[in-house]
């Protein structure tokens, strides 16, 4: 048997590296001439772990050092990528510029809801960014930023619900703004 095969069997048998079996990026165990074994990870970034193993009678020397390159864990992502999220924020912010004059001139019923949603989202993302930037976990602890984010989500949800209620049961946001301006 080759040195690489013996080393891999020994690692699995002794469970020297618990994540050896579950590491999906590990493909081969490569033996170098100086009796170091290295797990190949392809093109992925990797973390080097040096393990001092006392391999006993399986190998000529009593102590061998094996370098195992395990792939770095993939980041857990949820939702949009930051670049997509930023692009959507910018598109809504820029689309709000012509949205207001169009809504004030033509007064379509649907524009009340579009303006309400755009204003609510713009405020949610804008002030949410302020909370993320200035309510820092290392300064205020892990609870304060989470509470502020939750509070801000509730405020934005109630604000959007208020806009929707005003649009459905009253004259609407656009006509309400026109009435305020006519005073």
Helix-strand layout with pairing:
Layout: H1 3-14, E1 28-31, E2 37-40, E3 46-54, E4 63-71, H2 82-106, H3 109-134, H4 137-140, H5 143-169, H6 173-182
Antiparallel strand pairs: 1-2, 3-4
Helix pairs in contact: 2-3, 3-5
Give a description of the structure.
The chain has 183 residues and is an alpha+beta fold. The protein has two domains: 3-71, no CATH class; 82-182, 3 helical TM bundles of succinate and fumarate reductases (Up-down Bundle). 57% of the residues lie in helices and 14% in strands. The protein has six helices and four strands; from the N terminus they run αββββααααα. Strands 1-2 form a two-stranded antiparallel sheet. The chain has a two-stranded antiparallel ribbon with strand order 3-4. Strand 1 and strand 2 form a beta hairpin. The longest helix has 27 residues, at 143-169. Residues 15-60 have low confidence and may be disordered.
What is this structure, in a nutshell?
Helices cover 57% and strands 14% of the residues. By secondary structure, the chain is α+β, with helices and mostly antiparallel strands.
